[in-house]
Amino acid sequence: MTKTKRWGDSYFDRRDWPVTNEQLVKRGEYLLDLDFVEKWNEELSHMNFGKCGAPYLFPNSLIELQAVWHAKKIPCRMIEGICRRLTVMGRLPEYNDYSTVNRRINRLACQLVLPNSNSLTLFSDGTSLQVVEGGEYLREKYGKKNRRWIQVVILGDPVTKEPVSFEVNIIQNSELDSAKRQLAELLDADVKITAFGGDGSYDEIALWNWLFSQGIESIIKPDKNAIIPSGSRKRDKNTHERNICGFDLWSREHGYGYRWTATEGIFSAVKRIFGEQIHASSEQGMIQEAKIKFWAYQKIKRYGEA
After folding, report:
1. Are the C-beta atoms of 250 and 256 separated by less than 8 Å?
2. Rounded to 10 degrees, what is the CA torsion of 38, 41, 43, 49?
């Protein structure tokens, strides 16, 4: 078999591999980290303070750990069995049954932790997660009409290589509209964003002008047939630079290549660790399962880097 020539420039790995390797290995420790048990009663007291109705019997730390197990495709009944064995071993004070596990995981608030930075550069892109496990053969043979994909649109940080925000949609929506909503929510939360980028699907005049009005640098790939003037001075300037210097030089000058680590790299990591299939049958369950994948990825990544 003849070896084909590699596309693009030769790859040079700039990572400190011993450190990177240790971080990747340490992620696995989270799956068995039970240090939260020391503050079990303290956490429950804080959760139940001023609560109306029945008190919580199990802290959120346990539910978050079980949510990561569930994202690794461990069923709720098996999670109950794991916790039952840990209780017998004296590692947990008590265990919750599978219905409690399922109910608490579905109500878990999958809030991402924002990077500790006063100037964020964000890139947006979307991906799909598969919700039909039968495959093309069953669909063609039996004509199944059930929903096939669920959409996830993220805003990613190329520095931390983590999602900063995400939105899950049952019905395929415009990635551009989703990114606008997420940007507005981050700005309302007083998050400082200095630059925003995306591929050619984000090349909208209104977005260019809105980013300019917010003082946010645009790193958006202009359409190859873009005309000047277009209604956006910032877009016209980028289009002119791209036409004069060429796409490669324009991309390097503006940092457009960081889009890969901020979006595609995150999608690849999440799907490698947690898979790209959604097993829930209800729409609410599908949305929550997709959210947990990206939330859990940030959680174990930060645990490995701690």
Report:
1. yes
2. -170
> Which strand ranges, in their side-by-side order, compose the sheet holding 120-130?
162-169, 149-157, 120-130, 193-198, 217-220
Annotated domain spans of the chain: 17-106, 120-297
> Model's pTM, two decimal places?
0.89
Of the candidates 111, 112, 120, 154, the residue with the CA atom closest to the CA atom of residue 263 = 154
pLDDT in tens, 11-32: 777 888 899 999 999 999 999 9
CA angle, 78 then 31 then 161, to 5°? 125
Helix, strand or coil, per DSSP, at residue 120: strand
Each residue's pLDDT tens digit, 99-157: 999 999 999 999 999 988 888 999 999 999 988 766 666 666 666 555 578 999 999 99
> How many whole angstroms separate alpha carbon 231 and alpha carbon 228?
8
Output helix, strand, coil percentages for the chain, rounded to the nearest 5.
55, 15, 35
Going by CATH, does the domain composed of 120-297 fall within 3.30.420?
A: yes
